[in-house]
Design goal:
With 202 residues, the chain is α/β, with parallel strands linked by helices. It has 6 helices and 7 strands; from the N terminus they run H-H-E-H-E-H-E-E-H-E-H-E-E. The longest helix has 14 residues. It is globular, with a radius of gyration of 16 Å. The two termini are 22 Å apart. The structure holds S-adenosylmethionine.
Length: 202
Amino acid sequence: MTSSDPGATEWDVMYAARSAIWSGEPNAQLVAEAEHLTPGSALDIGCGEGADAVWLARRGWQVTAVDISHVALERARMHAGSAGHEITFVQADLVASPPAPGSYDLVSAQFFQLEDPPRSEAMLGFGAAVSPGGHLLVVGHCPSGHVGGGHPERLHTVDQITALFSPPDWQIITAEDRERTAMHHGELTDLTDGVVFLRRIQ
Ligand SMILES: C[S@@+](CC[C@H](N)C(=O)[O-])C[C@H]1O[C@@H](n2cnc3c(N)ncnc32)[C@H](O)[C@@H]1O
């Protein structure tokens, strides 16, 4: 993982448009899947404003949190600092520079939205970063249930992710769409999350 930032501008512009984009709360599916795990090393892929990284650090994880956006990382650093947690923040393009293989007990990609290609190759790189016995959590907006505009071509299904990670190397723990109601762009909205939670066997 080296620091480079082609494509950073789009995300920096989005973050700079408002003083806070996300809720400041950890993502619901991260909490649901990771709260029973024994803390170890964790990689937060596309950490945004840092709420997931802070939640993990509070629970005892050694967290590396990566984002392409300087603006998001500045906020995430402030969030972690005011919460009193030590988190390693890295500015990097995780598509151009995949994380180091076999390095983390948990790799979490929450709403890391990317068209394919290069989505599949990037996801394989995120999986490769999990150490044997560790977990990979990939959560995205379900394309069929997605509300709002944006970039539908960047959304993935659960099946598109599970197709990349199969036995005997991976155990599928969860692969399903989950509905929840949450604030989305300032309005209480019914959302569907595609949740893929996997354990690396070897
Ligand atoms: C939809 S946001 C989700 C942020 C956070 N995970 C959350 O759930 O609140 C996607 C994040 O991925 C980051 N990102 C997009 N492309 C990236 C890339 N190639 N490398 C690293 N981060 C990237 C963006 O800057 C943004 O913060």
